[in-house]
């Protein structure tokens, strides 16, 4: 019966009343941590119930008409975020409770200081590093704001120049106003980046410089063709060989210019085929612009027929001119004209030239012109000497089509 009081007398708890205070504080810490954990758990459950009840009523997320997330996906993302936040706060609650508990006992107090050092030292460094970088961050913010205002002013200026509200000639022509604006904007952004780069925290270290060099080399070797296309596109832009909507021929492809960028030119052929031509390819070859002269009605369409020597050239000239004038979208003034381009063994080459203002309708104009030439010569009883005939036939008989064609007669070929 006297053993228990003796044992209790040996326990430091009873010798030092401060242990009772420490035990009470420890118990209070554990109870508080438990209550906080229950509060977090209940709060998360209520939040999850609220999100699930709103799953069908949350509207989808749209940006400029493009749906990025449905309402169900938004609710799922918020639910995942709440779960992550719950586990993070619960873990923080446990860590704080353990640190406060261990700090109550001298035997474990040094471990608490060690762990706090691991956590607080990086936070201390980040805090003072942020304070040291604050002037540079403010400078970066000012440069970014000024750059944004300048870019908006440049965009407004060159957009108005493209619309014709502002005249920047002779420095910048209207048809190259938008590409020039893009170049100016790119230069302004590069200048801003050069001003910002030295002020970014960490860019002064040797590792960051080495990484910048490696990235620069990778971009240089990996995009040499792209850079070449951009340079060729800039040259083409200021050469002004065509506009959007012009009928052109580039690298043997004929079509209307749908889009022109620094990297490529997009053509729509008469067969509704979209063709992308890289800027380097366009710069290396010939570019034929049919619309440049068609806008003033001076585009010349021409075709050649071959007629025998027995027909007066005055008659042929008149027939070809009449056929051209009957063709729709051929300009009567200036009047079509005929050139005799070659004197061959059996026939003469007559080239009829007609003016038009409709470059986009070239295939249809040519087709109608050829039909009218055929009708005119058939009506006049004249034979177009092409294509060549390889079969035997009576040379005295004509191949004229229509009611004026003479009646065919037989002929005999004598063989020795």
TrEMBL record:
It is a multi-pass membrane protein. Keywords: Cell membrane, Membrane, Transmembrane, Transmembrane helix. It holds the Pfam family MS_channel_3rd. It comes from Terriglobus albidus. It comes from the Bacteria. SUPFAM superfamilies: Mechanosensitive channel protein MscS (YggB), C-terminal domain, Sm-like ribonucleoproteins. Belongs to the MscS (TC 1.A.23) family. Its main location: membrane. One of its GO terms (cellular component) is plasma membrane. Residues 303-384 form the Mechanosensitive ion channel MscS C-terminal domain. InterPro entries: LSM_dom_sf, MS_channel_C, MscS_archaea/bacteria_type, MscS_beta-dom_sf, MscS_channel_2nd, MscS_channel_C_sf. Residues 226-291 form the Mechanosensitive ion channel MscS domain. The chain crosses the membrane at residues 20-40, 74-107, 127-151, 183-201, 213-239. It is found in: Cell membrane. This is Mechanosensitive ion channel. GO terms for molecular function: mechanosensitive monoatomic ion channel activity.
């Amino acid at each position: 019966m006297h053993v228990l009081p003796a044992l209790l007398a040996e326990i430091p708890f009873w010798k030092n009343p401060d242990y009772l205070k420490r035990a009470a504080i420890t118990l209070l810490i554990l109870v508080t941590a438990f209550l906080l954990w229950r509060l977090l758990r209940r709060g998360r459950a209520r939040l999850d119930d609220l999100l699930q009840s709103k799953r069908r009523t949350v509207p989808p997320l749209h940006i400029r008409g493009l749906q990025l997330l449905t309402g169900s996906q938004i609710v799922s993302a918020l639910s995942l975020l709440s779960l992550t936040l719950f586990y993070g706060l619960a873990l923080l609650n446990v860590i704080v409770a353990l640190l406060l508990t261990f700090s109550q006992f001298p035997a474990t107090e040094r471990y608490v200081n060690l762990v706090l050092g691991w956590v607080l030292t990086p936070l201390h460094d980040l805090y003072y590093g942020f304070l040291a970088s604050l002037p540079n961050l403010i400078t970066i913010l000012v440069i970014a704001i000024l750059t944004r205002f300048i870019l908006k002013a440049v965009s407004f200026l060159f957009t108005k120049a493209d619309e014709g509200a502002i005249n920047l000639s002779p420095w910048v022509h209207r048809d190259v106003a938008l590409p020039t604006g893009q170049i100016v904007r790119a230069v302004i952004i590069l200048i801003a980046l050069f001003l910002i780069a030295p002020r970014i925290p960490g860019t002064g270290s040797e590792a960051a410089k080495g990484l910048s060099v490696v990235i620069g080399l990778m971009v240089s070797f990996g995009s040499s063709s792209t850079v070449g296309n951009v340079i060729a596109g800039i040259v083409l832009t200021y050469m002004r060989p065509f506009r959007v909507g012009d009928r052109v021929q580039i690298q043997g492809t004929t079509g209307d210019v749908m889009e022109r960028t620094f990297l490529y030119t997009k053509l729509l052929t008469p067969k509704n085929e979209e063709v992308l031509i890289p800027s380097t390819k366009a710069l290396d070859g010939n570019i034929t612009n049919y619309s440049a002269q068609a806008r003033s009605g001076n585009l010349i369409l021409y075709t050649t027929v071959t007629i025998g020597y027995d027909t007066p050239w005055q008659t042929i000239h008149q027939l070809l001119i009449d056929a051209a004038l009957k063709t729709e979208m051929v300009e009567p003034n200036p009047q079509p004209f005929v050139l005799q381009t070659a004197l061959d063994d059996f026939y003469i080459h007559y080239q009829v030239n007609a003016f038009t203002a409709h470059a986009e309708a070239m295939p249809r104009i040519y087709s109608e012109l050829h039909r009218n030439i055929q009708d005119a010569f058939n009506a006049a009883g004249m034979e177009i000497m092409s294509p060549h005939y390889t079969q035997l036939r009576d040379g005295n008989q004509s191949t004229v089509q229509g009611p004026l064609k003479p009646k065919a007669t037989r002929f005999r070929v004598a063989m020795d």
